Amino acid sequence: MHGRTLSTTERIVAMVSPDSEGVRDDLAAWATERDLSFDSVPVGADEDGIHDPSVTTLGVAIGGDGTFLEGVRAFAPRGTPVLGINTGTLAFLTRVGPDDMGDALTEVLRGRAAVAQRQQFRVDAPGVDGEVGINDVILETVPPEDPTGRKITRMHAYVDGEYVGRYDGSGLIVSTPTGSTGISLSAGGPIHYPEDDFTLQVVPLATHRMGARPVVVGAETDIAVVLDGETDLLVDGGRVHRRLEAGDVVRITGADEFAELVRTSYDDEFFASMAEKLGWGIREDHADVGPVDRVAEEDPDPDFLEHARRVAIEAAESVGEPLRDLHGRVEDVEFKSDKSDVITEADYRAERIITTVIENEFPDHDVRTEEGVKRDHGSEYTWLIDPLDGSGNFAHGNPNYSVSIALLEGERPVMGVVYAPEPREMFSAIEGREAYESDTRISTTDRESLDVSMLLSGYDPDGSFLVRFYQATRGVRRLGSAALNLCYLASGSADAVWEYDTYPWDVAAGLVIARTAGARITDSLGEPYELRLDRDDERTELLGTNGPLHEAVLTHLRSAEPELGLENPPGEGDGGTSAE
Predict the structure, then answer these.
(1) CA-to-CA distance for 281 and 218, rounded, in angstroms?
(2) What is the pLDDT of residue 277?
(3) What angle do CA 245, 249, 255 make, to 5 degrees?
(4) Which part of the chain has CATH 3.40.190.80?
(5) 508-526 b/e with 16+ CB inside 10 Å = b?
(6) What is the mean pLDDT of the chain?
């Protein structure tokens, strides 16, 4: 989940530790003041009945790390992000103090918090069937009843079927990067900075062999531990506890789902917590050292249009995951259902996220969307949004659909962002500056001849454009998204684009990107193309080229329609089209 998506939160569900009722009541009052629904459950209670997948939910764990681990167990399978409020003592996961709770949540609802994906593990053993956790699995010897009895255990470890070796000592810890502090640190294990780290590590406990060292493996690795004696298995500090016998096999690997942790500017820093709570000595006498200067740090004070571009990029990225998820559901719709329901949900969800993000950042700007949202504040700036361009493609499981976000000054597009969620292609530009695909500058081609050019076509009702240009070029393609057509012209993937009819929300962002990259955009008569917000029923044709090719395309477009003497009929061969 993208942090900007949190701005659409409608509901808060809190998991509350004992003696934290006062903080829970403060949270309930805060939510009520903002018209958010609120529910809470005590740690260990059955929370299944309070989850509603139709409502955007934020999970809040109020307590220490133990409460947070229970919150992750409850919320992660449902894709609900979790924010930790620390009312405990030694805590690394719950990093926001009660005094900062309101400010941190305000940051969350403004879409300015981050959502960090954390690796989880899955463990299988006798009596433990696919238990998922975020911290660690501890395998340790069972204390003997006789004080003079054997106090060590022996275990054999395997990684993807390959024998690692025999461990003699108090046991083993298999942990995620999140669980690589505390016990792991005291056992001589490494500290993993948990952000963007998707690994598992095996750390011996009180080993009796000098050569035994921690082992770090990828999250998809299958770790197997064969026990030589009676052993206690504990998941996430004892949330699950089983006693195993000699010969039992414990299997651990990365879980399919990630835990989503909400991080705000009010969180304690990771290494500062290490120094403060664990007495990590290498920061002694250096507590006042500030952050290192970053050579390639982004402009900390961007101008207005650059700020608008960054917000639009984040808004577009934030709808990528829900659109990809809904796109995957389209082909699973049963015959008695209506695929249009999925399309409507995709449009609505994407539109709501984008408009909420923009209104949080630019509350005085006007907003218009293809789906009918129209908010007028009398501003000189208008955001023009198509949350799902290429809905026909989307409905048929085709990946050629996009999100289009443009900023207009008056009726002139001055900033544009187009995002293709399936290939994760992000195009953006500011008028008069540079055009980009992600962080790479893009520009149009310099081809001057039709016979070496590739063309893109929009809706072509009678096939006339295809017929005219089929033999004269290297091919005509029809992708089904006007916004993407203009971006592929801008990036050099096509030399010219023709659209039979256009709407402002389809092309506004693409116009900025294509023009900034060097494209020439006119109507079919060669007159400058003008964006009309209040267009009437008159058809608005668009012709875009790399520039040098423009006159050749115009001339060929005006020529008499050729005979249909094609070696391959339209729709077949190199010059075929794809469905919109």
Answers:
(1) 29
(2) 66
(3) 130
(4) 450-558
(5) bbbbbbbbbbbbbbbbbee
(6) 85
Q: For residue 439, which amino acid is it?
A: D
CA distance 375 to 137: 53
CATH architecture of 304-441: 2-Layer Sandwich (3.30)
- The Cβ-side half-sphere exposure at 504, using a 13 Å CA radius, reads 22
- Which residues in the chain are classed under CATH 3.30.540.10? 304-441
Q: Are strands 542-545 and 402-409 parallel, antiparallel or unpaired?
A: unpaired
Half-sphere exposure of 483 (CA within 13 A, CB side): 31
CATH class of the domain whose range is 3-117+258-281: alpha beta
Task: Write out the DSSP string of 511-558.
Answer: HHHHHHTT-EEE-TTSPBP---TT--SS---EEEE-STTHHHHHHHHH
Q: Give the C-alpha separation, 479 to 393, whole Å.
A: 9
Token pair listed for 88: 């405990």
Q: Are 260 and 79 in contact (CB under 8 A)?
A: yes
DSSP letter at 502 equals: -
- Helix H or strand E encompassing 11: strand 11-16
The confidence score (pLDDT) of residue 293 equals: 52
| In 362-491, alpha helices (H) | 391-395, 464-469, 482-491
The answer to whether 385 and 370 are in contact (CB under 8 A) is yes
Domain with CATH 3.40.50.10330 in the chain: 3-117+258-281
**How sure is the predictor about 144, in pLDDT bands with cuts at 50, 70 and 90?**
confident
Tally the residues of the chain.
580
Helix/strand/coil (H, E, C) string of 322-344? HHHHHHHHHCCCCCCCCHHHHHH
CA R_g for the chain: 29
Q: What span, in angstroms and rounded, lies between the C-alpha atoms of 426 and 506?
A: 16
Q: Which of 469, 437, 485, 481 is nearest to 553 (CA)?
A: 469
Architecture field, domain 121-254: Sandwich (2.60)
Those residues with Cβ within 8 angstroms of residue 342's Cβ, 6 or more apart along the chain or in another chain: 326, 329, 330, 333, 395
Q: pTM for the whole thing? A: 0.79
DSSP characters over 114-180:
EEEEE--EEEEETTEEEEEESSEEEEEEPPPSSTTS---EEEEEEETTEEEEEEEESEEEEE-STT-
CATH 3.30.70.270 is right for the domain spanning 450-558 = no
Nearest to 253 by CA among 124, 367, 382: 124
User: What does the pLDDT read at residue 310?
Assistant: 95
Least confident of 195-199, 265-269, 366-370: 265-269
How far apart (Å, rounded) are the C-alpha atoms in residues 450 and 552?
7
All CATH 2.60.200.30 domain ranges of the chain, comma separated, are 121-254
What angle, rounded to 10 degrees, do the helices at 21-33 and 101-109 form?
A: 40
Looking only at the bridges linking them, the beta strands covering 542-545 and 475-477 are unpaired
